[in-house]
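This part of the workshop introduces the protein records we will be handling. The question running through the whole workshop is how a given chain folds. To make this concrete, we reproduce a full record directly below:
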Amino acid sequence: MSAYEAVIGLEVHVQLKTASKLFCSCPNHFGAEPNTHVCEVCAGLPGALPLPNHQAIHYAVLVGLATNCQINQRSVFARKNYFYPDLPSGYQISQFDLPLCEHGKITISVGGHDKDIGITRIHMENDAGKNIHGDNASSVDLNRAGTPLVEIVSEPDMRSAEEAVSYLKTLYGIVTYLGVCDGNMEEGSFRCDANVSIRPAGSTTLGTRTELKNVNSFRNVQRAIEVEIARQQDLLEDGECVVQETRLYDAERNITQAMRSKEEAHDYRYFPDPDLLPVTISDREMEAWRQEIPELPKARLARFVTLTGLPEPEAEILVQNKDLADFFEEAAGLANARKVANFIIGPMSREANAQGLALTPHNWSMTAANLAELVNVVDKGSISNKIANDIFGDLLRTGESPQSYIESHKLAQISDASALEGLVDEVIKANPKEAEALSAGKTKLVGFFVGQIMRASKGKANPALVNDLLKQKLKF
């Protein structure tokens, strides 16, 4: 890519976590039997009148405030006309020339460097249904039709797939911390279209862009953008032109494929929806909603770095979802914060990876109080850090009190000098050459002896006491 520069903009669709759909009272729930959450409005029947969901407008404004947008206290719903089987009315209710939010920005971090990414607009719209294709027939499920969405449209400010993923993860953190979206990418709650073009390095003229449609995982976004950049570069180097079109990413084959020609705004024939009044937000509502913005991931990360002394890349694990950050913060209020963080970043992360689970406390029975208790019993010398790591998986799954587990499994650390002295003598006797070398000043062998004694005691010996006994006996 040295001869070319990528130009990337993302359109992120966020399903809002309201109880009902955007313009009717049908349940906004995923997973029901097909076509069971449908009424005259979301089925697009003639004469049915939409009524805006106030909670969805509230959530959309929160997203705008959290992304530093200008909030238009008067905005207008428009009809976006296109024809697909899963859009029964023949148009989508969206926003066009007067959206709810515009002119925002968020800060991303890539390779230790911060960069501002502009947000052109955030507008509201209702989702389409879902086409289901079988071997011999296709059907349409309208349960999703009418689901409230916000579409977050970025400026074309990203120059690599890594920046695009960082931007997506930052947005994901914002909407999930706000509580306006459940963030389930597999169910399509958070998905994006990527607009990708390339141009000669140093040029300010935009190249012809393609749109990668509905990519719904961070990994696939990165792979799709990388393969599309490479495809466009091959075309230009072969003297061919990039065609403006919508493409789909095939994750199994790691290729993008043409889907259809890319529509422009005029193709949709936007006009104000005659059934809907303009959305108006009072000054009083705006002020109340501003007060609802919580501490967002970037600010929380900075505070956790200060609290734990961890480098930012490690501390980022603690804020990757709000539930985990809350869990850490509760435990850190009861025990050493750095050591609490180490258990989450270490054995808890390993357990999540081994089980293919998200790193969230809801997947296990361990409470924050139990994690703090584990840190405290290690600090008191009741068990070694090694034993704590060994039993961590059991504690995660069972939710048992660490102290109770230690007592029932007889794991308490041996801190009685008389009980350890015999073990120390046996290990010294079994390793006479090493003992002589340590006495002569070869202190690197201390680790060898401590390891042998810990092994002989099945990890129960108090390491500090073992060191003291070795010093007394070998005079080093």
Remarks:
- Residues 297-408 form one domain.
- The longest strand covers residues 113-126.
